[in-house]
Amino acid sequence: MNSSRLTVEPVSASEHESTIAALPVELHVPFEQSAAWAGVDIANGARSHYAFLHFKREGELVAFASVDRYVRRTRESLVVMAGPVFTVERTPALEKAVVEALAEHARQDPTINPMYLRVFLDYPDAVPGTVRSIERGLYEREVVVELGKSPEALKKSFSSTARTRINRAARAGVEVREITENRGEVFRTECFPIMEETASRDAFSLLPAAHYVSVLEDAPEYSRLYVAYAPASDDAPEAAEKIPVAWMLTTEYHGRGCYLYGASNHRAQETSAMFALMHTILLRLTETGNREVGLTGITSERFPELKGVENFKLRFSKRIDELPRLFDVPLQPLKYRALRAALLTRSQGPALARDAVSRAKDLAGKARAAVTRPKAGAAQESIAKN
Q1: Does domain 2-137+326-347 correspond to CATH entry 1.20.120.450?
Q2: Does residue 282 register a pLDDT over 90?
Q3: What SUPFAM superfamilies does its record include (predicted)?
């Protein structure tokens, strides 16, 4: 079909991968746009893969999108995770044409009935009706480490603090191992408990353990798991068995690596284990031919809580890339507005309740003070009478 002079062509997973393989390695293709990612977390009952769609103008590929379909109790949507990806210069007009072509394709498909599209955009003002997604989505800025260096040059490119901490980890007996067997089981028993500790410490929400295991088991050729082990204490016997203290899960796709997930416990902080882990994964991703590594999210308007990890990641590179933001494109505007209002009310409810309790306590305190403390005028009157 044609929309805004673009043709939308559904393709198979193998055709999708062949097309990407033929593209220049300099083009950033997020792993979430790969055929492999379509099989990750497939047990999620709300999510199914909808289609690989290629957008062409006069026969030339200009963009592509791996599209997921989400069906929840109150709505259906199409989600393009970390996409669309543009193979030519991304302009406001082209971004608008791609979104409109996707919307028209969805409207013409009798097998689906999405209320909205959820896509990552650079030029949302170019697409009429687009609104910032109520969900935060993926990170909006990331630190990127450029590879292609010798091991010595790579380490030298780090900050002096990072180099010092890497050396400190070695002196503390930190050992980094790549897990190549029983990765799902190792993750559940050794890694996820560390992530639960990290989430409790840093106050962020966890995905179910099954999601991380799915990345390892359903995309094994693209994912790697590294675990840092260290002595349980500084005075532990040298021969004592080391314990897991930190881990990192990486992916690599189309010449680019990604530090996708990771976590550390208190002992990892004492031993600088995360610095040893980062050094190791950057060396390994260099060895396997990647040109750069994305270290994922840092602080932004929607992710202010990432300031701590930003400081850590900037020890390894000062390059920061700005990424497209997440937006919704309503296909059923009236229903979408009603849904959005309901979701906003629900998401703001706990915060509003906390504010109400705080205000009530404040008013109660002021009332008690008013009862027990005489007014200035009354005090002056009492003094005048005595």
Answers
A1: no
A2: yes
A3: Acyl-CoA N-acyltransferases (Nat) (SSF55729)
Amino acid, res. 320: I
Residue partners of 243: CB distance under 8 A and separation at least 6: 229, 230, 231, 232, 267
User: Residue 227: phi, psi to the nearest 5?
Assistant: -125, 135
What global pTM score does this model have?
Answer: 0.86
How many residues are given for the chain? 386
pLDDT tens for 130-161 read: 999 989 888 999 999 999 999 999 999 999 99
Topology agreement, domain 2-137+326-347 and domain 141-322: yes
CATH architecture of 141-322: 3-Layer(aba) Sandwich (3.40)
Between CA 297 and CA 303 the distance in angstroms is 8
Residue 359 pLDDT greater than 70, yes or no: no
Distance CA 49, CA 40 (A): 10
Q: Using the predicted structure, report yes or no on whether residue 66 has a pLDDT greater than 80.
A: yes
Contacts of residue 46, defined as CB under 8 A and 6 or more positions apart, other chains included, come to 70, 71, 72
* CB 294 within 8 Å of CB 256: yes
Q: Which two tokens stand for residue 313?
A: 């990641």
Q: HEC states along the chain? A: CEECCEEEEEECHHHHHHHHHCCCCCCCCCHHHCCCHHHCCCCCCCEEEEEEEEEEECCEEEEEEEEEEEECCCCEEEECCCCCEECCCCCHHHHHHHHHHHHHHHHHCCCCCCCEEEEEECCHHHCCCCEECCCCCCCCEEEEEECCCCHHHHHHCCCHHHHHHHHHHHHCCCEEEEECCCHHHHHHHHHHHHHHHHHHHHCCCCCCHHHHHHHHHHCCCCEEEEEEEECCCCCCCCCCCCEEEEEEEEEEECCEEEEEEEEECHHHHHHCHHHHHHHHHHHHHHHCCCCEEEEEECCCCCCHHHHHHHHHHCCCCCCEEECCEEEEEECCHHHHHHHHHHHHHHHHHHHHHHHHHHHHHHHHHHHHHHHHCCCHHHHHHHHHHC
Residue written as token pair 């897991």: 244
